[in-house]
Design goal:
The complex is a heterodimer of chains A (about 270) and B (about 325). By secondary structure, chain A is mainly alpha-helical. Helix content of chain A is about 75%, strand content about 0%. Chain A has 12 helices and 1 strand; from the N terminus they run ααααααααααααβ. In chain A, α2 runs antiparallel to α3 and α8 packs antiparallel against α9. The two termini of chain A are about 35 Å apart. Chain B has about 325 residues and is of the alpha/beta class. Chain B contains 11 helices and 14 strands. In chain B, strands 5-7-8-3-9-10 form a 6-stranded mixed β-sheet, with helices on both faces. Chain B has a 4-stranded antiparallel β-sheet with strand order 12-13-11-14, covered by helices on one side. In chain B, α6 runs parallel beside α7. Classes of the chains: A mainly alpha (about 270), B alpha/beta (about 325). At the A-B interface, α1, α5 and β1 of A face α2, α3, β6 and α4 of B. β1 of chain A pairs parallel with β6 of chain B.
């Protein structure tokens, strides 16, 4: 137990150090640095304005109000902000597999998946994360309890996104070429963040509970922040754990089939 | 030099190659029923490397050198056979082994492009869990040996290839590995950078008894460093003997190409055979000896104005052809 905690702490320290290095590297280009963070915030502001204008015209649609959309926007921005900032390298995993570019990570003594995840940092994620928190604080009903629930469900949802991306990108180990399909699946998942949770019914619910876990990333977290239930939290926690286990299993299995390449490569 | 650092027994690695007939019909057929062919990259290779040995693992492009190194470092999984490095299985104990070995892939970078090397070194020290005191001392030693002191705070993207490569080597050696795998470490480098890298490899081997496993197309690397040379071709071993013997038997000639200001027809050097003679340039082949080379240069510089000089050694393909020819002859005699 003691050794596991020590390992976890070491990885946390290393994660902070790598993110710090990534931020320092990104700051070498001031304009790009500001544009990436600011650009994402401006993009998110447009979504918020759209909802403000929409709900001024139609204050309630099927029980869905502006506060609900604001909460959904806050959760989705925070969730994807965390993922983008801490694991954007994963979105490049299928390409790295297909082109045999995992050699560097495989020659290192630390966990390969962890290292690949931190291989690229998306500053836009920081913008998303800041905006998500800001929307929650300014436009949602904030109490200590739902504030904590907001943090926990956002982290769990980010963990689900992480596992989903690992799983879909790792398919490339077995098919040889899955880069575009994996990328499409990710962006489809992002798109579901625009739907009210009343939309997750019937066939769409089946799809979003199985193939595209949008139900657990958007619908369950929004419901839990609005009305907390332990059962809902356990539901999302168990799903996150199961998906993570499946993703890691697939990735490790895939590594056995990895075929390295000889192309020239530079680390950015 | 007693215990084994590397053990390879009957190693095989095959890659699956997708086959497809040309044209639309071929593409359709491949979509419905894809055909594959197993291509052996490494085919029944066996050898051992003792602790403290420097072994050159050479062969033409596509011979299986890099595949073997990648299996030895745990990057690739073998199709069959037994592999052990420092008593560990590189596939099942990849993480543990990585702390004890160093890898330098001449064509792959591990330093962060937009950061100065110092920042990447700090990161590697943490990744390899090197104690701060030990790290500072080791870094100072490597910085001095590879002459990279002035480069530590310049972003990697602004370094020349030679400077970058020297920094890459520092990064690979920070954790004091017991075995170092070098895959084309001097590719594309100038003579001075090559010499510096060779000197550091020699020093580490001499002072720390580090085992070196090296692949290179540069005969100079092999000549300057390796105790032993293993030649691989089409995935199988064709030769395994001391570098001294290897040189004596297979690197017997040198070819010098000269570009002159005066007509080349007047050039007369009886110790060599003229392979090619143009109006102002010529190619001469002669027995590989430093004295002959010196005599050739002296003659050329005394009698001609030399515009350009190139020196070639037999290519790996030529060496392998000689090895096969020798074997055929030996089999014919038996």
């Amino acid at each position: 137990m003691g050794a596991s905690v020590k390992t976890l702490l070491t990885y946390l320290q290393l994660t902070v150090f790598i993110l710090r290095q990534g931020l320092i590297a990104a700051m070498q280009y001031r304009v790009s640095f500001v544009m990436q963070i600011g650009g994402m915030i401006v993009n998110d502001i447009f979504w918020l304005l759209l909802w403000i204008l929409y709900f001024q015209r139609f204050p309630e649609v099927n029980g869905w109000r502006f506060e609900d959309s604001a909460l959904l926007l806050a959760i989705s921005c925070t969730t994807f902000g965390i993922f983008m900032f801490m694991a954007w390298g994963l979105l490049d995993l299928a390409r790295k597999i297909a082109q045999g570019e995992l050699d560097y990570y495989l020659s290192m003594p630390r966990n390969t998946l962890w290292h690949v995840s931190l291989g690229r940092l998306a500053l836009a994620g920081l913008g998303d994360l800041l905006f998500g928190i800001m929307v929650f604080l300014c436009f949602c009903r904030v109490t200590w309890q739902n504030g904590m629930v907001f943090v926990v469900v956002s982290l769990l949802a980010a963990w689900i996104v992480y596992s989903f991306v690992v799983l879909t990108q790792s398919i490339c180990f077995f098919t040889g070429n899955f880069e575009r399909a994996a990328s499409h699946l990710f962006w489809t998942l992002v798109t579901f963040g625009l739907y009210p949770y009343s939309a997750f019914e019937g066939l769409l619910k089946i799809i979003t509970v199985t193939l595209l876990p949008a139900y657990f990333i958007y619908a369950v977290p929004v419901r839990l922040v609005k009305v907390f239930s332990l059962r809902g939290l356990v539901e999302i926690g168990v799903f996150a754990l199961a998906l993570f286990a499946l993703a890691v299993f697939t990735f490790n299995r895939g590594l056995r089939r990895y075929e390295s390449g000889n192309s020239l490569a530079l680390r950015r | 030099m007693n215990s084994e650092s590397i053990l390879v027994r009957n190693l095989r690695k095959t890659f699956k190659l997708k086959l497809r007939d040309p044209g639309v019909i071929g593409a359709m057929r491949s979509l419905i029923k894809p055909l594959h062919r197993e291509v052996p990259a490494v085919d029944g290779v066996s050898f051992t490397v003792k602790q403290g040995e420097i072994v050159a693992f050479v062969g033409p492009n596509g011979a299986g050198k890099s595949t073997t190194i990648k299996i030895l470092t745990g990057i690739l999984h073998p199709s069959s056979g037994e592999v052990s490095v420092l008593g560990l299985n590189p596939q099942s104990a990849r993480g543990t082994l990585a702390y004890k070995i160093g890898t330098v892939f001449g064509q792959k970078a591990q330093l962060w492009l937009h950061l100065p090397p110092q920042d990447s070194f700090d990161l590697f020290a943490r990744i390899y869990a090197v104690e701060q005191v030990q790290y500072r001392a080791r870094l100072a030693y490597l910085v001095d040996a590879l002459k990279v002191g002035e480069l530590l705070n310049i972003p990697v993207r602004k370094l020349s290839l030679g400077e970058r490569m020297r920094c890459e080597i520092v990064a690979s050696l920070l954790h004091s590995p017991r075995v170092i795998f070098l895959d084309e470490p001097t590719i594309g480098l100038d003579v001075i950078a090559k010499q510096q890298i060779r000197e550091v490899i020699r020093r580490l081997n001499r002072e720390e008894d580090v085992t070196i496993f090296l692949t290179s197309h540069d005969a100079g690397d092999i000549e300057a460093l390796a105790h032993r040379t293993i030649v691989i071709n089409h995935g199988t071993l064709v030769l395994d003997e001391s570098t001294e013997n290897f040189k004596k038997r297979y690197v017997q000639t040198k070819t010098v190409e000269l570009v002159l200001d005066q007509p080349a027809k007047d050039f007369c050097f009886p110790e060599g055979e003229v392979l090619e003679r143009g109006d102002f340039h010529l190619k001469i082949e002669f027995k590989n000896s430093a004295q002959t080379l010196e005599r050739l240069f002296r003659y050329a510089l005394e009698h001609f104005t030399v515009r350009d000089i190139n020196i070639y050694e037999p290519s790996m393909e030529e060496i392998i052809a000689t090895i096969y020819r020798e074997r055929r002859n030996r089999a014919g005699h038996l």
